[in-house]
Amino acid sequence: MQQTMILTVTLNPCIDTTYTVKRLRARQLVRTSRVETTTGGKGMNTARVLKTLGAPVKALALVGGETGTLYERLVKEHGIPFVAARINVPTRTQISIVREGQQPWVGVLEELADTSNADEFDSVWDVIYDLADSGQWLWIDTQPAEPKPSIWLQRKRR
C-alpha cells in the first residue's frame, strides 16, 4: 500500500545559524566552539521530522536572494524533495547563541520578515494548489505579522 504524500509549505523560511560558546561576557571577544547552519521555518521543521519518521513528504518554501539560494542547497543536503517558489524578498536569517552543555539559548537574533512585496505571494498559491493535487495532506504553518494558527487541510481527491 502506497503512503500518501504530505506537502509542507513554509511561507516564512529562514537560515538558522547556531553558535555554541563556552561562556559569554560583555565587552570580551567570544570564540565559538561550534557553528551549525540549517534551514528553518515551521513548515520545513515539520518536513524534516516527517522525513525522519519515514513519511513521504515534499516541501515548498518561498525563497529569495542569496540566502534563498543557500536555503535551497541546505534542503537538498537534507534529502527532502523540495520546490522553491522564488520571490524578490531575500530569505531571512536567524542567529542563536547557546552555551556549551546548557540550555536554553543565551540569545536569539531574528530578522524581521520583509513583507513589502506581499503581492507576489498571491501567485505562489497557484503552485501550492498544483502540488497539493498530488497529495492528500497539506501542511501550512507560518507566523505572519498577525498571528494565525497552523492549518492542516485534508485534500479530497477530485
Describe this protein with a few key phrases.
158 residues, alpha/beta, UDP-N-acetylmuramoyl-L-alanine:D-glutamate ligase, 23% helix, globular
Strand arrangement in the largest pleated sheet: 5-4-1-8-9
Instruction: Provide the helix percentage.
Output: 10-25%
Q: Total helix count?
A: 3
CATH architecture: 3-Layer(aba) Sandwich
Radius of gyration computed on alpha carbons: 17 Å
Number of strands: 9
Write down the secondary-structure element order. Answer: EEEHEHEEEHEE
Low-confidence parts: 144-158
The CATH topology, please? UDP-N-acetylmuramoyl-L-alanine:D-glutamate ligase
Q: How would you portray this structure in words?
A:
It is built from three helices and nine strands, in the order βββαβαβββαββ. With about 160 residues, the chain is an alpha/beta fold. The protein has a single domain, classed as Ribokinase (UDP-N-acetylmuramoyl-L-alanine:D-glutamate ligase). The chain is globular, with a radius of gyration of 17 Å.
Strand-helix topology:
Layout: E1 6-10, E2 14-21, E3 32-40, H1 42-52, E4 57-63, H2 65-78, E5 82-86, E6 92-99, E7 107-110, H3 121-132, E8 137-141, E9 151-154
